């Protein structure tokens, strides 16, 4: 006769076996800016329900997301670095680029604004003034899409930032904003994460970038998010079918409506803007 413990184990295994097949899993590598804003929490349940899939989100910097894709450790990427995306495709790791939404970057800093950049129309000029006055600046320093854009803006300003005023943190957007708030420093942020964390950032103000995405006067601050399915010819184990479904669903009217409304109730403005129709691959 089986002991009660052994009998319970067997019954448990039998019941587990009758529960039907487990839902397939899609691994999405995306940026901390998308994750920290809360947008994925609003979007993913509808996709998971429609396709009976579970999405595992890995939130990292864009450079790390590309590294995951190159190793085949993700099925699909949601990133915001056009040059990096083109290189990724040229190497054969991605199938295509699907731009699905955009927001923008903003320069935030202490309310007292020691560098005097508030209201400037171009971020590169504002960074030049920050460097000239050696006002404290916090850089993500993590090879993320935001960090890559920051470096391109410094380059446009003709400056290689260095010195005790320039802090390279190696941190995600949320942690960088928190430290900038603590130290009353400037930093470059995506608008969505800054607005979503504003109640935790009492010392910081939006200084360059305009009051909304549509009113940002600097074209260098536009921030396009792109879905890149991983190429199954390079990584045969990836869920290419689900990755393609994710790319197409993200451009559906249902998903675009969620994106367009996300942030309106709480902030009085959307944190992201969708492309109004499924875009062609550039």
Give the helix/strand layout.
Elements: H1 4-17, E1 25-31, H2 32-37, H3 39-51, E2 54-60, H4 62-71, E3 76-79, H5 82-90, E4 98-110, H6 123-133, E5 137-139, H7 145-157, E6 166-168, H8 173-183, E7 187-190, H9 191-196, E8 204-208, E9 222-229, H10 240-250, H11 253-261, H12 264-267, E10 273-274
Parallel strand pairs: 1-2, 1-3, 5-6
Antiparallel strand pairs: 3-9, 4-7, 4-8, 4-9, 4-10
Helix pairs in contact: 6-7
Keywords:
single chain; 282 residues; alpha/beta; D-Maltodextrin-Binding Protein, domain 2; 2 domains; eight-stranded mixed beta sheet; two-stranded parallel ribbon; 10 strands; globular; disordered N terminus; disordered C terminus
What does the model show?
The chain folds into 2 domains: 24-102 and 222-274, Periplasmic binding protein-like II (D-Maltodextrin-Binding Protein, domain 2); 105-221, Periplasmic binding protein-like II (D-Maltodextrin-Binding Protein, domain 2, 3-Layer(aba) Sandwich). With 282 residues, it is α/β, with parallel strands linked by helices. Helix 6 crosses helix 7 (145-157). Strands 1, 2, 3, 4, 7, 8, 9 and 10 form an 8-stranded mixed beta sheet that branches. It has a two-stranded parallel sheet with strand order 5-6. Mean pLDDT is 90; it is low at 1-19 and 277-282. It contains 12 helices and 10 strands.
């Amino acid at each position: 006769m089986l002991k009660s413990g052994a009998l319970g184990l067997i019954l448990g295994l039998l019941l587990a076996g009758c529960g039907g097949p487990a839902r397939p899993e899609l691994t999405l590598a995306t940026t901390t800016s998308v994750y920290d804003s809360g947008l994925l929490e609003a979007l993913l349940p509808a996709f998971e329900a429609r396709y009976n899939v579970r999405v595992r989100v890995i939130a990292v910097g864009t450079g790390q997301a590309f590294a995951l894709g190159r190793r085949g450790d993700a099925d699909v990427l949601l990133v915001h670095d056009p040059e990096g995306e083109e290189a990724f495709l040229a190497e054969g790791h991605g199938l295509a680029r699907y731009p699905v939404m955009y927001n923008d970057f903003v320069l935030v800093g202490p309310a007292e604004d020691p560098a005097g950049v508030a209201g400037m129309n171009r971020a590169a000029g504002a960074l030049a003034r920050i460097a000239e006055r050696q006002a404290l600046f916090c850089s993500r320093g993590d090879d993320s899409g935001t960090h890559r854009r920051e470096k391109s803006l410094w380059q446009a300003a003709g400056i290689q930032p260095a010195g005790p005023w320039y802090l390279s943190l190696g941190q995600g957007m949320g942690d960088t904003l928190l430290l900038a708030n603590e130290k009353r420093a400037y930093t470059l942020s995506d608008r969505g994460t800054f607005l979503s964390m504003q109640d935790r950032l009492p010392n910081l103000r939006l200084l360059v970038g305009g009051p909304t995405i549509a009113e940002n006067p600097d074209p260098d601050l536009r921030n396009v998010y792109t879905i890149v399915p991983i190429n199954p010819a390079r990584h045969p184990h990836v869920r290419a079918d689900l990755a393609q479904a994710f790319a197409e669903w993200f451009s559906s009217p249902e998903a675009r409506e969620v994106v367009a409304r996300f942030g309106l109730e709480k902030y009085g403005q959307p944190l992201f803007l969708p492309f109004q129709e499924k875009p062609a691959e550039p």
